[in-house]
Write a structure and sequence with these properties.
- With about 400 residues, the chain is an alpha/beta fold.
- It is built from 13 helices and 13 strands.
- The strands form two sheets. An eleven-stranded parallel β-sheet has the order 1-2-3-4-6-8-9-10-11-12-13.
- α2 runs antiparallel to α3 and α8 crosses α9.
Amino acid sequence: MPRTLSVQPPIHTTEASGPPGSHQIPGVSRMELQQESQFTQLPPEVLLLIIDHLNTAGKISLLATCQYLRRLSEPLLYHHLTPDGSWKSCRRIQLLKTLGERQDLLPFIHSFRGHLIPTSIRRPSQQNEEADSKPRTPLQDEWFAISAPLLFQAINIRDLEFTDGIDWQANGRWELFKSAIANMKLHSLGLCSTSKTSLDLTPILREQPELTRLELTCPTAHFEGLEKSDVQKLKVFGGTWQQAATIIPGRPVGRLDLGCGDTDECHCQDEHIFQKLLQSSETVREFKVRAHTVSDDTRLRGVLQLIIRYLPKIVNLTIVAKGEISAQTLLEEIPKFSMISSLMILDAWFNPFAGAPSADFNDWGIYTWENVSEKLKELCPSLGDVGYTPQLRITV
C-alpha cells in the first residue's frame, strides 16, 4: 500500500528578507570571548553584513576563530544552498544529515537550488556508494521521507528550485509539496518532474503573489483556472510553448526560455502561441529557444522568422540547437532583429554548407564560425556579443 507523507509543523521564525539583520542574530554574547579584538567589538548587525560578503571559504575560516564569530557566521553558510549535480552525493547526504541534527539552521535558508533526493544509488541505511539492487522508486521514497519534511520546514526560503527529476505524483508527494509551499513566500520557483500524469500548479501559484520567476522542466504541468489576478509580478518564465501561451498573457514577462519538452508534439511554429506571447504586459527582450529533441535547420529558420514577426524587440537571443545550424540561416535571419546585442548558439553543429546557399551567400566566403561571427557583427550594428558552443558528436 503506498505510503502517504505528511508535513511536520514548521519552525516559526521572523520573516527573512534582505540582508541579515538583528532578528537573525543567534544568541551570542561577547562575554564568551577570551580576548576582544577591534573586529569583534563592532555591532553584530555590522559584523553580519561583513561576513555575508565573504565567500564560503572565508566563512568557514571564521568558524575556527572563536565561539562568538562561529555562532555569527555559521548560519550564513546556509543562506544559499546549491546541492546540485556539481556536488558529490556524499556531500549532499552530509548536508541533509547536518540539517536533520541542527534544525535550528533551517530558518536561515533563503534559497535552495539542487537535488531534493541526495543520491539515487544508495539507501539511507547504507554506508557506502555501492549501487543498490532494489528498484529506484522505493529508494527515492526512503530519501524523500527524510529530506522533504525537513526542507519544507525552512519557511524562510524565497528562491526554491529542485533540479533532480522527481515523480511528484507518487505516494502523496504532490500533496506534501503543495501544503509545504503554502507556508513559503516565494520569489522564484523551479521544478523538474518525471511525472507522466498532469500536475496542477494553479493552487500553488494562487498562493504566491510575490513570484517573479517560474521555471519548469515538467511538460505535464498546467495552470487551467489561473485567474488574471494571480502571479501578477511574474517576469521570467521557462517551460513549454503551450504552458507559456497559458500563463504569459496579461503578465509582465520579459524573459522567456521555451522548448517543446520531451513530447512527440511540436508547437514551436504555432502562430497561435506566438500571438499569446505578444500579450505580455511587458516587451519581451530576452528569449532562449530550445529545439525539439533533434533540430533541423529548416525548422529553426521557421522559428526565428516567427520570433522576428511577433517579438521583434529581442535584445538577448539564445538558441539551443541540438543539431545542425547553417551559416545562411543565421546570416539571413539574425540581422532582422534590429535591437539584438547578444547572440548565443549552444549545443549546435555548425555547417557552413548546409541547405542550398544563394548566390549572394556564396560571394561572402563563409567557411568557419569565425567568418559567421564577423559577418553577423557587420550586418548587425547593435550586436556586440556572439557565442557558440559546438554539439558533441559521437562517431562509431
